[in-house]
Structures are given as structure tokens and as C-alpha cells.
Amino acid sequence: MEIKVGFIGCGGIANAHMNALSKIEGVKFVGMCDIDENRAKIASEKFGGEVYTDYEKMLSELNLDVCYICLPPFAHKGQEELCIEKGIPFLVEKPIHLNKNKAKKILEKIKEKNLITAVGYQDRYQDIIDYIKPFFSEGNLGFFTGWWVGGMPGVYWWRRKEMSGGQVVEQTTHIFDMSRYLLGEPVEVFAVKKTGLMMDVENYDVEDASAVSVYFEDGTFGIIFSGCFLKVPGKCGIDFYFKDKVIEYTERYKIKINYGNKIEEIYEKGDLLLKENTAFIEAVKTKNPSLIKSSYEDAYKTLIFTLCANEAMEKKKVIKIKY
Ligand SMILES: NC(=O)c1ccc[n+]([C@@H]2O[C@H](COP(=O)([O-])OP(=O)(O)OC[C@H]3O[C@@H](n4cnc5c(N)ncnc54)[C@H](O)[C@@H]3O)[C@@H](O)[C@H]2O)c1
Question: Which residues, in sequence order, are CB contacts of 28 under 8 Å at separation 6+?
Fold first, then answer.
């Protein structure tokens, strides 16, 4: 069965998805849209598809089976709504939006149409995460600490808060999402931030560092650190402190479990984007959304979690998380 794919946004992550999709049988690239025509042309030359600079034109001219929305966070302006109107299942990159009311309206429309959607939280497809997930229902986790501490990403929009949402919303969102995936729903957050370390970067107004403390429904808590100011190698991952073991999840590919009397180390070997894209394409082909580990509905909750963390940071107040 052939699946006709179109892309809105042909930048960094879009090309990573195209590479993964090119390994999946039946996928045919039919449309490449980017406001930067050259990017759409480069993608089209490599993978195929008509070149567009206007997504409305692409969606009305091509009969897409699925659409990939790989836009910078600030650029979500009607693309999802038009896919829903036309009944086109889509995979959208995180963060799904910067405006929670607009994201909620999109979610309502998705539910009305019962449309298959997926969101780019590819870490959920890790075998190492499947391996540790059952530990979280044993009820003996005390707390966790998470980090995404490194340098500033190079894309021009990242350093502007109104364009990216800041590090918590744009980048550390993978850690926030993983904490929800493993622990369940957060109920309240508090956060602090630091600025002033990045005076050498022009046009920069995001926080340099933050710490977000979060309580979950069952009383478990965690602190998630973010930092984009490092000039030396940083740290990314989560440490989970259970009564009978400590699990270190590092650099999004390695798990070390210390049981006291033995240490177990396991490594992720799978191609995560291939797994994520295979799940989405199969879900569409077979009309089985249960293959997808992060839907728009689920990712909406991670968006709210991170936006509440931003709000706590600004207001210096505990924020209750309401979906
Ligand atoms: N899942 C992951 O691990 C992962 C990794 C990287 C990026 N991302 C996310 O993917 C999104 C895109 O990031 P990126 O690194 O690819 O950014 P990018 O800047 O490399 O690419 C974005 C592309 O979108 C195009 N664009 C902007 N506005 C447009 C519009 N209105 N219509 C059509 N095209 C438009 C730009 O010209 C650019 O080519 C971000 O939300 C980012 O957070 C996710």
C-alpha cells in the first residue's frame, strides 16, 4: 500500500524524518513545502515531491495520506487546522504549539474527527525505556532529578523566548515528557531561573538556566534542571531513586541500574526515528492509533506541563497544572 507524504517545513528535523521514512516500504514523497524555497528544493531533489512555499496550496493540490509538520515553535499558524479540516493524519514536532488555548482547540477538532496524530517524542520508543517502565508501578520510587544542560542550539529562533518558548518548552520538554510517560500526571510545579551568563550572545532573551520542581499525583516529586550556557560538555538524562535501586538514564541511550549487590548496564540500539515513523505510518495504514506512543492528546499535556513551569518561573509562584 502506497502512502503519499507531504512535509510542511523542510529544515533539520524534517530531513531526519525524511531519511527515516525513505527506509519504509510504500512511502512516497509527494510534497515538500518550506517558506525558504531552497530548502524545499533540496529536499525534493533528494527524496522527491513537488516543491511548495505555501502549505495551503500544497494541501489543496495534493491528495496527501499523511502530513509532517516540522515547523519552529512560533510558526504553527493554521497548518494543523487545515490538515484536520481535510482529514489528513499528521505527525507534528514538539513543542506542538506555544499557545495553550490554540493547542486545546486543535485537540478538540482532532477528537471530533477521530484523526490519527503523532508527536515527535521519539524517546518513548526506546527498548531501554520499555525495560525500566514496569519498575514505576511498584510504588517505591522516592524522587528523581533530570537534566538537559549544554550549549545553545544554533537555529536563529531558539534564543528568542517568543519564538521557541525557551529551553524548558523547546528542548528539556523531552525530559518533562519522559517523566510523565514513566510516572503519570504532574499536579503542580515551582521553578526558578538564572540569567546574565549569555551576555556575549546577540538577540538572546531566554533564561540561561532553570530548575523546575514538580509533584506527581501519587506524591512522588522531581527536580528538572535546564541550562544552555555551558562551553564544556554537559549532561542530559534522569536519575531515579527507588527504595531498592538507583536508575541512571543518561544521554538518552544508556541505562545503569545499581541494585546494591550488582550493577546492570543496557544501551539503546534501535533507530528511534525509524521506529517512531514506522509506528505512525503503520497506524495510518491499519487505522490503529494504539501503535503510536505520543499522540497530540498526550503531547498536549506535556506542553501544558512545560508552559506551567514557565509561568512558575515568571511569577515565582507554585502553579497547579490543569489540562
Ligand atoms: N524530536 C526531536 O528530537 C527534535 C529535534 C530537533 C528539532 N525538533 C523540533 O522540530 C521543530 C523544527 O526544528 P528544526 O530544528 O527542524 O528547525 P529548522 O529551523 O532547522 O527548520 C524549520 C523549517 O521550517 C521552515 N518554516 C518556517 N516557517 C514556515 C512556514 N510557515 N511554512 C513552511 N515552512 C516554514 C523554515 O524555513 C525551516 O526550513 C521545532 O519545533 C523543534 O523543537 C525536534
Answer: 2, 3, 4, 5, 48
